[in-house]
TrEMBL record:
PANTHER family hit by this protein: FC RECEPTOR-LIKE PROTEIN 4, IMMUNOGLOBULIN FC RECEPTOR
Gene3D superfamilies: Immunoglobulins (2.60.40.10)
Domain named Ig-like: residues: 29-110, 162-300
Protein's recorded name: Ig-like domain-containing protein
Xref: SMART domains: IG (SM00409)
Length: 332
């Protein structure tokens, strides 16, 4: 037996959705994280599900950019189709094997293009790093004053109350603020550096990027931000140790290219990319004993500015997301 309740009806329990970076407006091409939290006096173990309200009349199709892990819902490389209202369902089971579900209030996202003066820079431009690699996150150049931006970091800790660090010499693990520059931070990658980064200032905020630090044997590096049609793109397969003969690249699970070279770093070049090149890529050793996590390549069709996408006041369809499965595909 399932019972569905709205959290606002219960004084002792509150289910809410937080958006990171904070705010209802998100930018094309960035990464966004929604987190469900339950404030309760009980010690129940909770499982989570998600609802997305859309205005599309067509049936929802699986969207690999939408991923869920426990109480977190992440969107990689935001597009205009990601505008909509999102809700979290928190479920607990009673001793008599019946479940009770609590529904959060909606979190509504609108999508617009990032202002050119608000661009965060990541060097090198990739979302995946090996431990001990160095990278730099640079906030935009402020139009107001030299210290107008501060770098923010949201770590990927499921089930923990959100805590955002900002740039000072002690708050970002593995990071060191450049001399006299609170808007620039240099890192030697370790597990504490994984998470969402963005810059905040009097002028608003920058785009956000999700960085993952790997302790595995192989990773694939794709551009951290969307590329444009016609660009030349280099995908880099990198091993932690040793040289490896023949490395195979895959796109959306299908074999795409095999390099005969023998090295610790293997490249695949895409000339004049189109939107057909967009997708999840990975690489693997010849014997398939080493296989990288998938990395998303986002391709934008043009460079013209786009207007914000608001939600029209029409009847909405609701997509229900399955419960608490590890990094499963979401529906748009």
């Amino acid at each position: 037996m399932n019972i569905l309740l709205t959290s606002s009806l219960l004084e002792t329990l509150k289910v809410s959705v937080s958006v990171w970076p904070p705010g209802s407006n998100v930018y094309l091409g960035e990464c966004v994280l929604l987190q469900c939290s339950v404030e309760s006096n009980s010690s129940f173990v909770w499982s989570y599900g998600w609802l997305k309200h859309s205005t599309h009349a067509d049936p929802p199709t699986p969207n690999p950019r939408h991923l869920v892990l426990g109480d977190s819902y992440s969107i990689t490389a935001v597009t205009r189709e990601d505008a909509g209202s999102y809700q979290c369902q928190a479920r607990r089971w009673d001793s008599n094997s019946s479940s009770v579900e609590f529904l959060s209030q909606t979190a509504t996202l609108s999508v617009s293009e990032l202002p050119s003066a608000s661009l965060l820079t990541l060097t090198p431009s990739t979302r995946q790093f090996f431990r001990e690699e160095r990278f730099t996150v640079q906030c935009p150049v402020s139009q107001i004053n030299s210290s107008g931006w501060r770098l923010k970091h949201f770590p990927p800790i499921s089930g923990v109350r959100p805590r955002v660090s900002h740039t000072d010499p002690y708050s970002l693990p593995g990071g060191a603020v450049s001399a006299g520059r609170s808007d620039r931070c240099e890192f030697t990658a370790d597990s504490g550096n994984s998470g969402l980064y963005w810059c905040q200032g009097a002028e608003g905020r920058s785009n956000a990027v999700y960085i993952k630090v790997s302790y595995g044997a192989i990773i694939l590096k794709t551009p951290a931000f969307p590329v444009f049609e016609g660009d030349k793109v280099v995908l880099v397969c990198q091993y932690w140790v040793g040289n490896h003969s023949k490395t195979t690249f895959f796109k959306n699970g299908a074999e795409n290219f095999t390099s005969p070279g023998s090295d610790r770093v293997i490249q695949m070049t895409l000339e004049n990319v189109t939107q057909e090149d967009e997708g999840f890529y990975k690489c693997a050793s010849q014997d398939r004993k080493m296989e990288s996590p998938e990395a998303w390549l986002s391709v934008s069709p043009h460079r013209e500015r786009l207007q914000a996408v608001e939600l029209p006041a029409t009847k909405q369809d609701v997509t229900e997301v399955q419960w608490d499965l590890s990094w499963m595909e979401m529906s748009n």
